[in-house]
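Continuing the batch. This is chain 6 of the set; chains 1 through 5 are on the previous pages. Same settings as before, nothing changed between runs. Recording input and output for traceability.
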Amino acid sequence: MILKQIEINRLFNHYHSVIPFTEGINVITGENGSGKTSIVESIYLALYCSTFKGKKREEIFHHFKPNYNSVKLETDTFIIFRRFDKPEDWLLYCNKRIFGRENITKEIEKSFISRSFFQSIVYNSQDRFLDIVELSPSEKEMFVNKILNLDYITNFAKLLTKNINILKAKKTEIQFLMKKLEASKEERKRELIEEIATLKTKIDEVKKELEELEKKKLSIEAKKLIIEKEKWLKDYWKCKKLLKEYEILQEKQKEKNNLLLELKEKKKTLEVEIKNLKNQVEKYRNLLKEGKCIYCERPLEQKDYERYEQAILDKEGKVALFITSLDELEKSIESLKKELNKIKYQLDKLNPYKIKSNMLKLRQKCLEVFPLRKLRELVKVEVKESEITIFRKYEEVLKLYQELEDRLQKTKWEYELILKKSIKKDYQELQNKLKEINKKIDSMEGFKKVIVEKNLAGEIRWQALSQTGIEKIFEIFDLGKLSFNKNFEFFIDKFPLHLASGSQKVATALAIRLAFLNLNKTEFLILDEPTMFLDKKRIEDLMEMIVLAYSKKLVNQIILITHEESFKEIAHNLIKVEKDKEGAKIEIL
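Output for chain 6:
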């Protein structure tokens, strides 16, 4: 399987990125936080619909709104598409078949690459490159178990042990019953009758105590419910009062609005009157200046002057009076506007939708509980002890009651068994059951012996490790001869790995991963900052090894995320990731 391209839409810090991959060495460079590792996260998200560290939805979508968040991964074998705002649109197209939402991840793990193998071998996270060689033998064993999915063998051994113990307990129980059957029938019958009578007496006593405690318990719970219900009712009426206030304020607002409209109309009328009066005064003044009548052009007499001057004085007086009224109207309008603003603020603050919602919730709570009258009847029992003491005592007495009931049932069952005429038949049945159980125990212990004593998982691990061809891969790096034993201890030229040079450790880590890739027929490897904590010499050696691994066809595709500039020289496909306002910016160099 070779990765060809991934398209990321509004995921992590990628707004819209299309990243092509080629066969060979793909080098991804860029600053910290630019979105390099997000590319690998998106590959994992496409394959398994989850992230490495189980990131939350808001971390995946980051600063992008959940609108057309999708990832599309194309390989030489299949195409997978996941759109996270519409999961019904997910699809996997493979071998001319289309798989729906429910079967995508299952089909990927079954037919191509398992999640555990991807996490352990295919993907190497930052600063974890050398972990594979620095683990203890037991940790290496667990590591290989995870890769080869051998945990089921250990779990099967545990399940066998559990089932063996259950069968042994049943065996003990049957043997106990067989011994009882062998005992004297009549004597055992008398004992059982006495035991049944004693148990019934005890059960009656405990039952009475349990009833008393139950009444006290109910009384305590009823008191709590009364307090709760009264609080809910109080809150309900408070909400109702607020709603009434809201309605009153609305009416008040309506009245003030109507008054405001009236005052504005009155203001307009006054303004028109003032304008007309001013026009008339101007007209009379023009007449006095010209000294002629505008209609007949005759000269004005003294009495005409006096009449026009008096008219001017009257109209100017009216104008002054109207202006005063207009000022008063404007003050009233401003005052009304302030009042309306106050009312609007109060209305916004009350929020009737929220009040009604609270009322519905409170009412539902009240309806779910018994009526107050019924609750008060339950409170009639006087409770002297503390609440904790009563509840604890109730649990203890209830447990004792159940134990006594169980004992009574077992005793009755045993008594009925003894009363049967065909005791021999019952005894024979028990013997047959015992044989079956012994046979099952022997069979299971045989399986367990093969798994545990002969170390089945260890043999499978050894065979798998022997077939990976790690030694031959290591020989290609020309750094010595690699060997290992069943305890997962590695040696180079017969010296333990911890005494090896840094380059030899790097080569071993890479060889192990390449070997397991070859064993599982996986054609690509992802290295995320593998040079972290490596010195300059080891970095150079790692670069040479990667080139050699590809040239010798130990792996067909490598995706390498790095800050090291020297790795650009070996890239068949160089991808540069930069920070941008809208998200990561991809440039193919």
